[in-house]
Amino acid sequence: NADQAMYAAKAAGRSKLHFFTAGMQTLSQKRSRLINALREAIRQHQFQLYYQPVIDLESMTVVKAEALIRWNHPDEGLMFPHQFIQAAEQGGIIQELGDWIFREALQQVKQWRKQLNPQIQICINASPSHFEDSAQSPAHDRWIAIARESGLNNAELSIEITESLLMESSADTQQKLVQLRDANIQIGLDDFGTSFSSLAHLRRMDIDYLKIDRTFVRNLHGDSDDLVLCNAIIVMAHTLGIKVIAEGIETAEQHTLMQQANCDYGQGFFYASAMTARQFEQWHQKFSEQPLLLPN
Ligand code: C2E
Ligand code: MG
Ligand code: MG
Ligand code: MG
Fold it and tell me: Domain named EAL: which ranges (predicted)?
């Protein structure tokens, strides 16, 4: 009867609700376990920077290395940023982690400039939370101090920010970026083209380079719409005095098309994936000795 039906429905609803809550708890428990593990990981030196080269497409030389963080987890093995960066942001660990990355990368670029490649620049990825207005000790202040202490010269280091940061950026954020540039730190715009109002913000903010997002590079071939788009981005950026990196170059064809399109730099598995510092040095040696073999 109707009562029984209602009772059954209520019971089902309750158990669903119960099930849902239990699921949520497990998720937030997992999250807080992860956050604690991250805190411990800093103390235990479980983080490691990997480096992926950026190639000048005209001279075919290595001009930059992007630092990409990895976590050598004692049980899980090598962990990638998408598995922990968000938790680090939510747990407030991203500040400490960001400072560690900054120091580590700075030390590495100084060594490489002496011993490997006098021109090389290191690129670091920043999180939007590094630029939050509410921060008591703003990241950019600490980074500028660290850079000053280590006697940073010109163009040794750049910080990559995302379009969304620039889009939501207050006058305050823009001021921070200006201060970083005044301290000889370049600013790059990552994943360009994935957010909406890119163009207006490019004009408003001084940046040194932008990275065409790899979703545009992925489908590049001779007559694709994406090639037209990439060409337009490159011409526009150059008009504004901004350099361009094509990210996610995986094939010789993509490489050649970006070279023909006058794109300044290329990055992607076609040249090399992210490597440990030692592997990067060995790869760099080989790459400098023998030019890239291109089919045609
Ligand atoms: P991103 O800055 O856009 O970095 C490029 C990502 O694409 C890297 O993944 C890189 O390994 C990958 N990649 C490079 N070439 C290719 C290619 O040819 N094909 C494909 N399919 N992928 C390619 P990764 O290292 O997993 O980093 C992912 C994202 O995590 C980065 O995107 C960046 O936003 C963030 N991230 C990485 N390291 C850090 C860090 O130290 N701090 C912060 N805040 N974020 C970081
Ligand atoms: Mg990046
Ligand atoms: Mg990117
Ligand atoms: Mg990306």
Answer: 31-288
- Which residue's alpha carbon is nearest to atom 43 within ligand 1? 125
Q: Is the ipTM of this complex over 0.90?
A: yes
Burial group, residue 280, by CB count within 10 angstroms (0-12, 13-18, 19+)? buried
C-beta of 250 in contact with ligand 1 (< 6 A): yes
DSSP label at residue 284: H
Instruction: Show Cβ contacts of residue 139 under 8 Å, excluding neighbours closer than 6 positions.
Output: 95, 98, 99, 126, 130, 131
How far apart are the CA of 164 and the centre of ligand 1, in A? 16
From the alpha carbon of 130, which atom of ligand 1 is closest? 44
Element (H, E) at 97: helix 94-115
At 7-57, the pLDDT tens digits run 565 556 555 555 556 566 687 888 889 999 999 999 999 999 999 999 999
Q: Which residue out of 64, 68, 124 has the highest number of ligand 1 atoms within 8 Å of its CB and is therefore the one to mutate? A: 68
Of 39, 160, 162, 176, residue with least CA distance to 94:
39
Q: What is the pTM of this model?
A: 0.90
